[in-house]
Amino acid sequence: MKNIFNQLHAEEMVNRIDNLNPSSKPQWGKMDVAKMLAHCSSFQDIAMGNAFPSRGWLGILIGKFVKPIFYNDKPLPQNMSTIPTILILDEKEFDTEKEKLKQKIIAFQNNGPQKCTNHPHPFFGKLTSEQWGKGIYKHLDHHLKQFGV
Fold first, then answer.
1. Burial of 138 per CB tally in 10 Å (0-12, 13-18, 19+)
2. Per-residue DSSP letter, 121
3. pLDDT top residue among 81 and 71
4. Number of structural domains in the chain
5. I need a surface site. Which of 42, 70, 86, 119 has the fewest CB within 10 A?
6. pTM for this prediction
7. Could you tell me the superkingdom of the organism this chain comes from (predicted)?
8. CA triplet 119, 127, 84: central angle to 5 degrees?
């Protein structure tokens, strides 16, 4: 499983993001490309310890039992529900969101596993830095595939 803490894997993500453009269309889902970039950036904030969404009751109930879906080798399901606080509804500016996400990926990778949050994931609960690294890669991969890159 690829891990965003691996420099080559982080560079792969940044390069794939560079292949997006404002007219990139989703193969599934409701977000446009700028909203998707903002969504991924907001998710990075959680992993970096810059945002602390509370855990919902469903996550508390079953999160620890299903958390391997976040960091295993199987692709995430299309149209999977998301953390409500990172559901992007307002319009976003593509170039701004693209650069913001790239910088967060680079910073997260450069900071390494030791700077990863200890705060629980809002659905899956407590994760190790390795699980976060794999999960961040998998989440980005999911959304970049959504837009064909």
1. buried
2. B
3. 71
4. 1
5. 119
6. 0.95
7. Bacteria
8. 60
